[in-house]
Give the backbone structure.
Amino acid sequence: MRIGILSDIHANLPALAAALGWLSKQQLDAIVAVGDIVGYGPHPKPVIRMLQRFNVHCIGGGSDMRVAFRVLSSAPRSSISDITLRWTIAQLEEPEIAFLKGLRYRHRVPLGRGQLMAFHGTPEDPEVKIDLELPAADLLPLFERFDASCIVASGSHLPFQRWLGDRLIFDPGSVGLSLGGAPGADVAVLEDTPQGLKVQFKKLPYDTEWVAQDMALFGFPPPLIEAIRQGSFTPSDHPASNATIEWVPAVHG
């Protein structure tokens, strides 16, 4: 079995098109998008439609839930999160909102031994990140709880993998807002073979300038635009950079 894994698309249509274009050539059995489909990017509606057209199994992330249920601060703030999520809410119509409301927090795929368990953040809360470098004794109960041989815990925006004996936990990185230091769309392919599990990470080029120009046109904060161009986030003097960005990774590696 071969499964394509996406995460943190963040309403970036060219990045998603690049990711799905490459994955469509990989002879996959399924594609799973592990949360944060919208938010921070300029193309929320076409991204949702593309995922539906490709029959991608989608999981809800923190940005998706905050948009779907309008869970924002009661007063306007200058954070990048509030600026972009309020804009996103204004762009979506009822079909897209209904799609986001219907997303589950977890997705299971049976494997040859155990199963794949995928979620954004933690199994119960997509906005709380798991540190994938915790001691093995702290992570193994999660595998036991779900009878899992592989866990995808996304949300750091950084590709990362770790083996705990013959069990694998990984984050595929971010399709639409990669923060690993180089621009591009992060994707992963999980392969379940008789010899065991294998994961392949891939960074795909796309037209970042197209996305940056769309973001500028819609008035997105400059630090976020530069994050698309550079593949990393550097605060600036712009007021929106004064607040902590909620997807700052908890994982180091």
